[in-house]
TrEMBL record:
Domain RNase H type-2 positions: 9-198
Keyword field: Cytoplasm, Endonuclease, Hydrolase, Manganese, Metal-binding, Nuclease
Alphabetized HAMAP family for the sequence: RNase_HII_B (MF_00052_B)
Gene giving rise to this polypeptide: rnhB
Protein name, entry field: Ribonuclease HII
Species the sequence originates in: Salegentibacter chungangensis
C-alpha cells in the first residue's frame, strides 16, 4: 500500500524513465500531490498496465498541486553520462514546478542537491510513496510517447514496442541497420561475441 511521506511538508516526488535504454532521452517527472490524494490504481509504473498508466496520467495531471516533466536527450547523455543525465532531468522537472517544495523524495540511491531543499533517496520509492509513484507514471507515459514518435521515423527498431530498451530484436536491428541519431553512442549497443570457455 503506497503511503504519504509526510503530511506537514510540501513534498515533491521525482523519478525517471529510460535510464537503461539504448535509444531516446531519459525522462523525469516531479509531482506534488494534495494532502488528501488517494487512488487505488496508483503504483510504480513498472507494475501497472498500459491502460491504467494512461488513466493515471490524466488523474495525476488533473489532481496534482503541481507537476512537471523534463527530457535529457541523447547528445547530453553521451556528454555527461546516464547517471548525471538522470539527475539533471529530475532537477529540470523540479525547476519547472509552480509550487516550491519543502522536501524532495527521489526514487533510487543517487541525487545531487537542488538548491537548499532537503532531499532523501529511497530505494524502490516508486513502490512505497504516492508522489514518487505518480512521478514514475508521468515519466514513463511521456517518454513512451516520445519513443512512439521516433518509431514513425525509424520503424525497423520497433521502438513503439521496446521503447528503446536493449531487447534481442532492438540489438538485431542495430546490427543490421546500424545506429540512428536517436541512439546513445556512449552505450554498449552490441554485446561482444560470446566466447566459448574451454
Amino acid at each position: 500500500m503506497l503511503k504519504r511521506y509526510r503530511k506537514d511538508l510540501i513534498i515533491v516526488g521525482t523519478d525517471e524513465a529510460g535510464r537503461g535504454c539504448l535509444a531516446g532521452p531519459v525522462t523525469a517527472a516531479a509531482v506534488i500531490l494534495p494532502k488528501n490524494f488517494a487512488n487505488k490504481l496508483l503504483n510504480d509504473s513498472k507494475l501497472t498496465s498500459l491502460k491504467d498508466r494512461n488513466t493515471l496520467k490524466e488523474v495525476i495531471e488533473q489532481k496534482a498541486t503541481s507537476f512537471a516533466v523534463a527530457h535529457v536527450d541523447m547528445a547530453e547523455i553521451d556528454e555527461i553520462n546516464i547517471l548525471n543525465a538522470s539527475i539533471l532531468a529530475m532537477h529540470r522537472a523540479i525547476d519547472q514546478l509552480h509550487t516550491t517544495p519543502q522536501h524532495i523524495i527521489v526514487d533510487g540511491n543517487r541525487f545531487k542537491p537542488f538548491g537548499n531543499i532537503p532531499y532523501e533517496c529511497i530505494i524502490k520509492g516508486d513502490e512505497k510513496y504516492l508522489s514518487i509513484a505518480a512521478a514514475s507514471i508521468l515519466a514513463k507515459t511521456y517518454r513512451d510517447a516520445v519513443m512512439e514518435e521516433m518509431h514513425e521515423e525509424f520503424p525497423m527498431y520497433n521502438w513503439k514496442k521496446n521503447k528503446g530498451y536493449p531487447t534481442v530484436e532492438h540489438r538485431a536491428a542495430i546490427k543490421q541497420f546500424g545506429t540512428t541519431k536517436y541512439h546513445r553512442q556512449s552505450f554498449k549497443l552490441l554485446p561482444d561475441q560470446l566466447k566459448l570457455e574451454l
